[in-house]
Protein backbone atom coordinates (compact mmCIF):
# COMPACT_ATOMS: atom_id res chain seq x y z
CA UNK A 1 0.00 0.00 0.00
CA UNK A 2 2.86 2.33 0.88
CA UNK A 3 4.55 1.58 -2.44
CA UNK A 4 1.37 2.41 -4.30
CA UNK A 5 1.04 5.73 -2.49
CA UNK A 6 4.67 6.52 -3.28
CA UNK A 7 4.05 5.71 -6.93
CA UNK A 8 0.96 7.93 -6.97
CA UNK A 9 2.96 10.75 -5.33
CA UNK A 10 5.91 10.25 -7.69
CA UNK A 11 3.70 10.45 -10.81
CA UNK A 12 1.53 13.24 -9.42
CA UNK A 13 -1.57 11.02 -9.67
CA UNK A 14 -3.24 11.89 -6.38
CA UNK A 15 -4.09 15.52 -7.29
CA UNK A 16 -5.26 14.40 -10.71
CA UNK A 17 -7.46 11.69 -9.21
CA UNK A 18 -8.94 14.22 -6.77
CA UNK A 19 -9.65 16.67 -9.59
CA UNK A 20 -11.18 13.89 -11.69
CA UNK A 21 -13.46 12.83 -8.83
CA UNK A 22 -14.64 16.41 -8.27
CA UNK A 23 -15.46 16.83 -11.96
CA UNK A 24 -17.30 13.51 -12.04
CA UNK A 25 -19.47 14.67 -9.13
CA UNK A 26 -20.16 17.95 -10.95
CA UNK A 27 -21.12 16.13 -14.18
CA UNK A 28 -23.40 13.67 -12.40
CA UNK A 29 -25.08 16.45 -10.40
CA UNK A 30 -25.62 18.52 -13.55
CA UNK A 31 -27.01 15.45 -15.33
CA UNK A 32 -29.44 14.85 -12.46
CA UNK A 33 -30.64 18.46 -12.60
CA UNK A 34 -31.13 18.29 -16.38
CA UNK A 35 -33.07 15.01 -16.19
CA UNK A 36 -35.41 16.49 -13.59
CA UNK A 37 -35.85 19.58 -15.75
CA UNK A 38 -36.72 17.38 -18.74
CA UNK A 39 -39.24 15.42 -16.64
CA UNK A 40 -40.98 18.61 -15.55
CA UNK A 41 -40.72 20.50 -18.83
CA UNK A 42 -41.69 17.89 -21.45
CA UNK A 43 -45.20 16.43 -21.31
CA UNK A 44 -44.89 13.95 -24.20
CA UNK A 45 -43.80 10.56 -22.83
CA UNK A 46 -41.80 9.56 -25.90
CA UNK A 47 -39.92 12.87 -26.16
CA UNK A 48 -39.29 12.97 -22.43
CA UNK A 49 -37.88 9.42 -22.47
CA UNK A 50 -35.50 10.18 -25.36
CA UNK A 51 -34.24 13.42 -23.83
CA UNK A 52 -33.49 11.73 -20.50
CA UNK A 53 -31.54 9.04 -22.35
CA UNK A 54 -29.60 11.67 -24.30
CA UNK A 55 -28.67 13.54 -21.12
CA UNK A 56 -27.46 10.31 -19.46
CA UNK A 57 -25.45 9.32 -22.53
CA UNK A 58 -23.81 12.75 -22.81
CA UNK A 59 -22.84 12.60 -19.14
CA UNK A 60 -21.29 9.15 -19.61
CA UNK A 61 -19.30 10.28 -22.67
CA UNK A 62 -18.06 13.37 -20.82
CA UNK A 63 -16.84 11.24 -17.91
CA UNK A 64 -14.99 8.88 -20.27
CA UNK A 65 -13.35 11.81 -22.11
CA UNK A 66 -12.41 13.41 -18.81
CA UNK A 67 -10.77 10.18 -17.68
CA UNK A 68 -8.75 9.93 -20.88
CA UNK A 69 -7.64 13.55 -20.70
CA UNK A 70 -6.72 13.27 -17.01
CA UNK A 71 -4.83 9.97 -16.90
CA UNK A 72 -3.61 9.27 -20.44
CA UNK A 73 -0.16 10.75 -19.81
CA UNK A 74 0.31 9.60 -16.22
CA UNK A 75 -0.49 5.92 -16.41
CA UNK A 76 2.21 4.91 -18.90
CA UNK A 77 4.18 3.18 -16.15
CA UNK A 78 1.19 0.97 -15.36
CA UNK A 79 0.31 0.04 -18.95
CA UNK A 80 1.18 -3.65 -18.58
CA UNK A 81 -0.70 -3.98 -15.32
CA UNK A 82 -3.70 -2.19 -16.73
CA UNK A 83 -3.59 -4.52 -19.75
CA UNK A 84 -3.83 -7.60 -17.55
CA UNK A 85 -6.53 -6.03 -15.42
CA UNK A 86 -8.51 -5.07 -18.54
CA UNK A 87 -8.26 -8.61 -19.88
CA UNK A 88 -9.50 -10.02 -16.57
CA UNK A 89 -12.35 -7.56 -16.38
CA UNK A 90 -13.33 -8.28 -20.00
CA UNK A 91 -13.47 -12.02 -19.25
CA UNK A 92 -15.41 -11.56 -16.02
CA UNK A 93 -17.85 -9.07 -17.52
CA UNK A 94 -18.21 -10.57 -20.97
CA UNK A 95 -22.00 -10.80 -20.62
CA UNK A 96 -22.18 -7.14 -19.60
CA UNK A 97 -19.90 -6.13 -22.47
CA UNK A 98 -22.02 -8.15 -24.90
CA UNK A 99 -25.16 -6.50 -23.48
CA UNK A 100 -23.67 -3.05 -24.02
CA UNK A 101 -22.75 -4.06 -27.57
CA UNK A 102 -26.36 -5.17 -28.03
CA UNK A 103 -27.55 -1.77 -26.78
CA UNK A 104 -25.36 -0.07 -29.37
CA UNK A 105 -26.70 -2.43 -32.04
CA UNK A 106 -30.33 -1.75 -31.08
CA UNK A 107 -29.93 2.00 -31.51
CA UNK A 108 -27.65 1.85 -34.55
CA UNK A 109 -29.72 -0.56 -36.69
CA UNK A 110 -33.05 0.37 -35.05
CA UNK A 111 -34.03 -3.21 -34.28
CA UNK A 112 -36.80 -1.84 -32.07
CA UNK A 113 -37.75 1.32 -30.20
CA UNK A 114 -39.78 2.14 -27.07
CA UNK A 115 -43.43 1.53 -27.89
CA UNK A 116 -42.76 -1.32 -30.34
CA UNK A 117 -44.28 -4.74 -29.76
CA UNK A 118 -41.60 -7.42 -30.11
CA UNK A 119 -40.89 -11.07 -29.40
CA UNK A 120 -37.34 -11.82 -28.32
CA UNK A 121 -35.89 -14.83 -26.55
CA UNK A 122 -39.35 -16.53 -26.27
CA UNK A 123 -40.75 -13.39 -24.58
CA UNK A 124 -43.41 -11.18 -26.20
CA UNK A 125 -44.39 -7.71 -25.06
CA UNK A 126 -44.33 -3.95 -25.59
CA UNK A 127 -40.96 -2.22 -25.15
CA UNK A 128 -41.25 0.31 -22.31
CA UNK A 129 -37.56 1.03 -21.72
CA UNK A 130 -34.19 0.33 -23.35
CA UNK A 131 -31.34 0.47 -20.84
CA UNK A 132 -27.62 0.12 -21.42
CA UNK A 133 -27.64 -3.59 -20.51
CA UNK A 134 -31.33 -4.60 -20.40
CA UNK A 135 -34.56 -3.99 -22.31
CA UNK A 136 -37.77 -3.83 -20.28
CA UNK A 137 -41.01 -5.28 -21.68
CA UNK A 138 -44.63 -5.23 -20.58
CA UNK A 139 -45.49 -8.88 -21.22
CA UNK A 140 -48.24 -9.87 -23.64
CA UNK A 141 -49.91 -13.27 -24.01
CA UNK A 142 -48.84 -16.31 -21.97
CA UNK A 143 -51.88 -17.44 -19.93
CA UNK A 144 -53.90 -14.39 -21.07
CA UNK A 145 -55.85 -14.84 -24.30
CA UNK A 146 -55.01 -12.97 -27.49
CA UNK A 147 -52.66 -9.97 -27.26
CA UNK A 148 -53.55 -8.63 -23.82
CA UNK A 149 -51.11 -7.60 -21.10
CA UNK A 150 -50.38 -10.09 -18.33
CA UNK A 151 -49.25 -7.38 -15.91
CA UNK A 152 -45.73 -8.79 -15.61
CA UNK A 153 -42.74 -6.60 -16.44
CA UNK A 154 -39.84 -8.56 -17.93
CA UNK A 155 -36.23 -7.48 -18.36
CA UNK A 156 -34.28 -9.09 -21.19
CA UNK A 157 -30.51 -8.77 -21.64
CA UNK A 158 -29.58 -6.72 -24.69
CA UNK A 159 -27.14 -9.51 -25.57
CA UNK A 160 -30.21 -11.51 -26.67
CA UNK A 161 -30.29 -9.60 -29.98
CA UNK A 162 -27.15 -11.55 -30.98
CA UNK A 163 -28.47 -14.90 -29.74
CA UNK A 164 -32.04 -15.18 -31.02
CA UNK A 165 -34.30 -13.63 -33.68
CA UNK A 166 -36.13 -10.40 -32.91
CA UNK A 167 -39.76 -10.39 -34.10
CA UNK A 168 -41.03 -6.81 -34.41
CA UNK A 169 -44.80 -6.43 -34.75
CA UNK A 170 -44.79 -2.71 -35.47
CA UNK A 171 -41.54 -1.49 -37.07
CA UNK A 172 -41.88 -0.06 -40.61
CA UNK A 173 -45.23 -1.82 -41.18
CA UNK A 174 -47.60 -1.47 -38.17
CA UNK A 175 -50.14 -3.99 -39.49
CA UNK A 176 -50.51 -7.77 -39.34
CA UNK A 177 -52.35 -10.27 -41.48
CA UNK A 178 -55.08 -12.14 -39.64
CA UNK A 179 -57.77 -14.65 -40.60
CA UNK A 180 -61.38 -15.50 -39.75
CA UNK A 181 -62.76 -18.98 -40.40
CA UNK A 182 -66.53 -19.05 -41.01
CA UNK A 183 -68.18 -22.52 -41.20
CA UNK A 184 -71.34 -22.58 -43.36
CA UNK A 185 -73.72 -25.53 -43.40
CA UNK A 186 -74.11 -27.56 -46.61
CA UNK A 187 -77.31 -26.61 -48.42
CA UNK A 188 -76.91 -22.91 -47.71
CA UNK A 189 -76.95 -20.32 -50.49
CA UNK A 190 -73.19 -19.94 -51.19
CA UNK A 191 -73.55 -16.74 -53.25
CA UNK A 192 -75.46 -15.04 -50.44
CA UNK A 193 -72.89 -16.21 -47.89
CA UNK A 194 -70.02 -14.83 -49.97
CA UNK A 195 -71.78 -11.50 -50.40
CA UNK A 196 -72.44 -11.18 -46.67
CA UNK A 197 -68.82 -11.88 -45.77
CA UNK A 198 -67.42 -9.53 -48.43
CA UNK A 199 -69.81 -6.71 -47.46
CA UNK A 200 -69.00 -6.99 -43.74
CA UNK A 201 -65.27 -7.14 -44.48
CA UNK A 202 -65.46 -4.06 -46.71
CA UNK A 203 -67.32 -2.00 -44.10
CA UNK A 204 -65.19 -3.02 -41.12
CA UNK A 205 -61.75 -3.25 -42.75
CA UNK A 206 -61.60 -0.65 -45.52
CA UNK A 207 -59.83 1.96 -43.35
CA UNK A 208 -57.10 -0.50 -42.36
CA UNK A 209 -56.63 -1.49 -46.00
CA UNK A 210 -56.19 2.11 -47.16
CA UNK A 211 -53.57 2.93 -44.53
CA UNK A 212 -51.83 -0.44 -45.00
CA UNK A 213 -51.56 0.22 -48.76
CA UNK A 214 -49.67 3.46 -48.09
CA UNK A 215 -47.38 1.83 -45.52
CA UNK A 216 -46.69 -1.16 -47.78
CA UNK A 217 -45.62 1.11 -50.66
CA UNK A 218 -42.97 2.55 -48.35
CA UNK A 219 -41.89 -0.99 -47.47
CA UNK A 220 -41.51 -1.86 -51.17
CA UNK A 221 -39.39 1.24 -51.77
CA UNK A 222 -37.18 0.46 -48.77
CA UNK A 223 -36.75 -3.33 -49.04
CA UNK A 224 -36.54 -5.98 -51.74
CA UNK A 225 -40.09 -7.26 -51.31
CA UNK A 226 -43.05 -7.81 -53.59
CA UNK A 227 -46.12 -5.57 -53.70
CA UNK A 228 -48.49 -7.70 -51.59
CA UNK A 229 -52.28 -7.47 -51.57
CA UNK A 230 -53.41 -5.71 -48.39
CA UNK A 231 -57.15 -5.78 -49.17
CA UNK A 232 -59.44 -8.49 -47.69
CA UNK A 233 -59.48 -11.78 -49.61
CA UNK A 234 -61.96 -14.63 -49.29
CA UNK A 235 -61.30 -18.29 -50.06
CA UNK A 236 -63.48 -21.39 -49.73
CA UNK A 237 -62.75 -25.00 -48.76
CA UNK A 238 -65.02 -28.06 -48.63
CA UNK A 239 -64.63 -30.13 -45.46
CA UNK A 240 -66.30 -33.27 -44.14
CA UNK A 241 -68.79 -31.29 -42.05
CA UNK A 242 -69.22 -27.85 -43.62
CA UNK A 243 -68.14 -25.29 -46.20
CA UNK A 244 -65.31 -23.29 -44.68
CA UNK A 245 -64.77 -19.68 -45.72
CA UNK A 246 -61.40 -18.12 -44.91
CA UNK A 247 -61.36 -14.31 -44.65
CA UNK A 248 -57.81 -12.92 -44.72
CA UNK A 249 -57.17 -9.24 -43.94
CA UNK A 250 -54.71 -6.74 -42.48
CA UNK A 251 -55.33 -5.16 -39.09
CA UNK A 252 -53.61 -2.93 -36.55
CA UNK A 253 -51.29 -5.15 -34.50
CA UNK A 254 -52.89 -3.94 -31.25
CA UNK A 255 -56.51 -4.44 -32.38
CA UNK A 256 -56.57 -8.03 -33.67
CA UNK A 257 -58.95 -9.31 -31.00
CA UNK A 258 -61.29 -6.31 -31.12
CA UNK A 259 -61.59 -6.38 -34.90
CA UNK A 260 -62.15 -10.15 -35.02
CA UNK A 261 -64.91 -9.87 -32.40
CA UNK A 262 -66.63 -7.14 -34.40
CA UNK A 263 -66.41 -9.20 -37.59
CA UNK A 264 -67.99 -12.26 -35.97
CA UNK A 265 -70.77 -10.16 -34.41
CA UNK A 266 -71.65 -8.54 -37.74
CA UNK A 267 -71.44 -11.82 -39.65
CA UNK A 268 -73.69 -13.62 -37.17
CA UNK A 269 -76.27 -10.82 -37.30
CA UNK A 270 -76.31 -10.70 -41.13
CA UNK A 271 -76.58 -14.49 -41.44
CA UNK A 272 -79.52 -14.55 -39.02
CA UNK A 273 -81.26 -11.96 -41.21
CA UNK A 274 -81.25 -14.35 -44.21
CA UNK A 275 -84.11 -16.35 -42.72
CA UNK A 276 -82.37 -19.71 -43.14
CA UNK A 277 -80.86 -19.21 -46.61
CA UNK A 278 -77.46 -19.24 -44.94
CA UNK A 279 -76.79 -21.21 -41.77
CA UNK A 280 -73.72 -21.45 -39.60
CA UNK A 281 -72.45 -25.00 -39.20
CA UNK A 282 -71.33 -26.96 -36.19
CA UNK A 283 -69.86 -30.41 -35.70
CA UNK A 284 -72.49 -33.04 -36.66
CA UNK A 285 -72.65 -36.82 -36.68
CA UNK A 286 -74.66 -38.80 -39.23
CA UNK A 287 -76.01 -42.22 -38.32
CA UNK A 288 -76.06 -44.27 -41.55
CA UNK A 289 -77.33 -47.65 -40.30
CA UNK A 290 -78.98 -49.07 -37.21
CA UNK A 291 -78.45 -52.78 -36.57
CA UNK A 292 -81.46 -55.07 -36.10
CA UNK A 293 -82.38 -55.63 -32.49
CA UNK A 294 -84.47 -58.47 -31.04
CA UNK A 295 -86.37 -57.77 -27.85
CA UNK A 296 -88.00 -60.62 -25.95
CA UNK A 297 -90.55 -59.76 -23.23
CA UNK A 298 -91.66 -62.35 -20.75
CA UNK A 299 -94.73 -61.87 -18.60
CA UNK A 300 -94.50 -63.69 -15.33
CA UNK A 301 -97.68 -64.23 -13.28
CA UNK A 302 -97.14 -64.63 -9.59
Pick out its properties:
302 residues; alpha+beta; SH3 type barrels; Alpha-Beta Plaits; five-stranded antiparallel beta sheet; three-stranded antiparallel beta sheet; 7 helices
Number of domains: 3
Topology order in helix (H) and strand (E) letters: HHHHHEEEEEEHEEH
H/I helix tally:
7
Q: Which ranges are low-confidence, i.e. pLDDT below 50, for 5 or more consecutive residues?
A: none
N-to-C terminal Cα separation, in Å?
A: 117 Å
Helix- and strand-based class? Answer: alpha+beta
The residue fraction in helices comes out at 40-55%
Mean pLDDT: 78
CATH class of the largest domain: Alpha Beta
Number of β-strand runs: 8
Strand residue content: 15-25%
Shape from CA axes? Answer: elongated
- Just name the CATH architecture of the largest domain: 2-Layer Sandwich
Largest sheet: 5 strands, antiparallel
Spatial strand order of the main sheet: 4-3-2-1-5
Do you know the CATH topology of the largest domain?
A: Alpha-Beta Plaits
Q: Taking Cα atoms only, what radius of gyration do you get, to the nearest Å?
A: 33 Å
Amino acid sequence: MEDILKEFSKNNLLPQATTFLIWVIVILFTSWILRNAVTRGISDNSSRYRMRKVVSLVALVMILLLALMTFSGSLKYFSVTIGFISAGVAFALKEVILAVAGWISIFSVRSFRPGDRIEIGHVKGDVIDIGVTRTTLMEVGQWVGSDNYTGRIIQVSNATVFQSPVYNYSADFPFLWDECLIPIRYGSDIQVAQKIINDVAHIQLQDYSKFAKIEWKQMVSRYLIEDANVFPTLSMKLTDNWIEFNLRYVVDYKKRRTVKTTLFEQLHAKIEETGGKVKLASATFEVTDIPDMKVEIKNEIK
